[in-house]
Every structure is written in structure tokens, then in C-alpha cells.
UniProtKB/TrEMBL annotation:
Xref: Gene3D superfamilies: Jelly Rolls
InterPro entries associated with the record: RmlC-like_jellyroll (IPR014710), RmlC_Cupin_sf (IPR011051), Uncharacterised_HutD/Ves (IPR010282)
Stored SUPFAM superfamilies: RmlC-like cupins (SSF51182)
Superkingdom of origin: Bacteria
Protein name per Swiss-Prot or TrEMBL: HutD family protein
Amino acid sequence: MKTTLLNAEDYTRAPWKNGGGVFTDIADAHRPGTVVKNWDSLLWRFASTPIVAPGPFSHMPDIDRLQMVIGGRGLVLKAGGQELDEREPFTTVRFTGEMEIVTELEAGPVEVVNLMARRGAAEIELVALKEPGERPLPAGTHLVYALSRDCDIHLKCEEFLVPGGSTLKIELTEASRLTLVSGLAVLASIRLVS
């Protein structure tokens, strides 16, 4: 097991692929040997961003996406005849980067987290840790993003305090169990498959 604390002040910011906003890049991975890191070399990315006005999502071929509202409420994603409902915070929706999506804000701006992965390269999961309790973690990379306050977690008989706004990156070579003792966090899980 390897753990790394990613401090909020070290996150990077970059424009959305379509230039419509700015995201905060919390953690990512690119193809090995990549010299220029860009959307084409991306294996996976975990990021947060505000959505302050209705508008289109970026077109991201071959990317699978998970998204969750972590601040505000009332977000709806419209794609053709279907609706992805994120009106309530901490609801995860899954969609592909090829979908033509337009946002609808029913109650003002929201803050979301996105977990994106190149299709076929990784399997991803995104869940909210709202109540104290234990959760199994498979081998892979896991990101515990502490939201509004510090989070106390236990993992393999070790205790970790994750400051609010920071992220604990956990790299596991075998399955383990994570216990949330206190706080509110988002857990992003990535398992590379090729």
C-alpha cells in the first residue's frame, strides 16, 4: 500500500476542453512515456468544477464519465430525449464523452466532481462517504477527497486525517477495507485494465 496526501494548494487549474469554464485537476494519469500530457494521452482524471450557467458539455470521444454534485442542488443533464438527474447532491450519474449534453440549473450554480477514464483502459467508480462505516476497496487507485471539513479514515490498521479540501491517494496492490470514522468525503476508485 502506498498513500500520498494531495494538498488543495497543489491542485492545478485548466480550461474545460470546450473552453466554457475552468476545472480543478485533483489527480490524473497519462499513458506511460507521455511527453506532452493532454486529452489524447489521458488514462484517467479526477477533477472538480463549478457549473455557473446552463451550457453544453465538452465532446470527449472514448472517455467514460462519472459525475456528482457536491455543492448546490438542482442540476439536470439533458441528452437528446433522456435526462440524467443530479438534482440531489451526492447522486452519481454515468455517461459517455460522446453524448451531446446540455446542463439545466434549476436552483442556481453547483459544484461537481468528475471522474473520467479512457474507455477500455480503466474501470471507475464514484461514491459519497456520508456516514461512518466500512467499505471494501479492490486493488487499484483510490482517492478520498475530503469536502467541507477534515475526514478521519482508517485503512490497514493505520489512521489518516485528510484536511478539508485535500485528497488522500491510496494505491493498493491487493484488496483492503477503508473505514470512515468522521467527516464527509467522495471516494473515486480507478482500476487499470490494460
